[in-house]
Structure formats: structure tokens, C-alpha cells
Structure prediction request, 121 residues.
Amino acid sequence: GAVTIRLRSLQSVMERSLRRHHNPEAPEVVEEQLPTYDYNRVVFTEEMRKTYKILVPQMSPLHFSLLDPVLKNEGYNFEMLPAPTRDDIEVGLKYINNDACYPAIIVVGQLMSALLSGKYD
Prediction:
């Protein structure tokens, strides 16, 4: 769990440090050279409420069960994802930085597992 994440993060930092010290001629990455990640925000419309499905990751069964009647009452089409599995956590670690908090890794893992399953698009 959380210990594994911290150990992977430490390993990653150590590997970067070793590469930097063993190859001092390696070019430094200047901030201007980094890619930008701009995107156009899509507004969630009334029509989307009827046709789109919202995937809700399972973080706290007790609290998230309260979302079910609220979202249904508001007319949202949603699906509460099942409790996270060990595989979801591994998928989360594959798609998120090791320095992210454990709940973020779980959420990303659940959502990516759901999308990769082919059940959703």
C-alpha cells in the first residue's frame, strides 16, 4: 500500500540522482522546453446529463452510498464503481506519479481499470 508507494518514489528519485551524477554533461531541461497541457473545457450540459454516464469511484462505502439517492434525484446517469482491488491500485500506480497520495492512486486506478475494461468509452 502506502509503504510500497513511498519506496517506489524513493527508488525513482535515487535513479534520477544517479543518472545526473554519472552523466554531468547531460543537458538540463529548461522549463520553456517542457510541453504545455492546455485543453478546452467542455461544459456539462442538460443533454449530457441524460446521455452520459458518470463513473463514481468507491472511496468510502458509507459516505458514497449517500450519493446514490442524491444523484438519482438530480437525474444523473451514473455508476458507482465496486470497491477497489489490488489490481486497481497497481493500475493507479502505472498512470500516476509515485508522489501522489494513496487515495488519488486508488481513484485513478479504479477509473482507469473501468475505462480499460472496454465497458465504457
